[in-house]
């Protein structure tokens, strides 16, 4: 049976390995799944048709993690972020849907590189931001989510505040699930979903389960802050590689 999106067996095997790695990172740190997978996918194929698959996978992963994160969710932050994202999702997806493969790679990579460098800079807010600030951050995330990297703006601002790792992880998971649920119908309306999307999700599901399970077990045993730094460093390196590739 042919693979979805006309992928070769080699590209399919590479994406399966990338999916497991990204799911492990999501299980461990609470964010990074979409960005890691999409930036790796951009090395071998046009990432744009894969974004709805990634969003559906992200929603599915929340089911694996829901029981463990429930006590740690900061609902005030989550709802404010989601309110902002709701404003930005529709126009941002409309713009992204009109980009060609090379443009999509370049936009996605540039977004990831800029946000990764912000995360790596050690930038800190002088004081925690309030509800209005979180709504503004949610709008930035909603725009970035059209490229599949909506978690990075929120992660940048949340890591710049004194938030316990378990609360950070749980709140990011809820927020990412919410913005993906917003984006999927809009992407479908712009013709970015189809039978290959469903087939891709079906193939991805067992890989997701294994990756999230391993990553979630690791969260209790290691230092999440240090691991998040490694993840963001990898994102920045891959994004820079894709920008160079697109420019050649």
TrEMBL record:
Compartments where located: Cell membrane
TM regions (residue ranges): 7-25, 31-57, 78-97, 103-123, 135-160, 166-186, 198-215, 227-244
Signal peptide: none
Subcellular location, principal: membrane
Pfam families for this protein: TauE
Membrane topology: Multi-pass membrane protein
InterPro entries: TM_pro_TauE-like, TSUP
Origin superkingdom: Bacteria
Protein name per UniProt: Probable membrane transporter protein
Organismal lineage: Bacteria, Pseudomonadati, Pseudomonadota, Alphaproteobacteria, Rhodobacterales
Keyword terms of this UniProt record: Cell membrane, Membrane, Transmembrane, Transmembrane helix, Transport
Family to which the UniProt record says this protein belongs: Belongs to the 4-toluene sulfonate uptake permease (TSUP) (TC 2.A.102) family.
Keyword Transport (UniProt): yes
């Amino acid at each position: 049976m042919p693979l979805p999106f006309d992928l070769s067996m080699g590209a399919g095997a590479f994406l399966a390995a990338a999916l497991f790695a990204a799911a492990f990172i999501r299980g461990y740190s609470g964010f990074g799944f979409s960005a890691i997978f999409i930036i790796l996918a951009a090395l071998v194929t046009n990432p744009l048709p894969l974004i709805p698959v990634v969003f559906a996978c992200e929603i599915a992963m929340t089911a694996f993690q829901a029981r463990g994160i429930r006590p740690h969710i900061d609902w005030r932050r989550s709802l404010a972020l989601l309110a902002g994202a709701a404003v930005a999702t529709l126009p941002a997806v409309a713009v992204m849907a009109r980009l060609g493969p090379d443009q999509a790679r370049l936009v996605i990579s540039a977004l990831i590189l800029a946000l990764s460098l912000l995360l790596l800079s050690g930038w800190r807010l002088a004081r925690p931001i309030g509800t209005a600030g979180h709504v503004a951050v949610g709008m930035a995330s909603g725009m970035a989510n059209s490229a599949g990297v909506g978690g990075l703006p929120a992660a940048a601002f949340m890591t710049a505040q004194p938030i316990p790792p378990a609360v950070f992880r749980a709140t990011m998971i809820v927020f990412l699930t919410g913005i993906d649920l917003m984006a999927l119908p809009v992407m479908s309306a712009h013709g970015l979903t189809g039978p290959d999307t469903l087939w891709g999700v079906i193939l991805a599901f067992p890989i997701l389960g294994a990756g999230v399970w391993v990553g979630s077990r690791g969260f209790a045993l290691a230092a999440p802050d240090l691991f998040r730094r490694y993840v963001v460093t990898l994102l920045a390196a891959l994004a820079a590689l894709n920008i160079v590739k697109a420019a050649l």
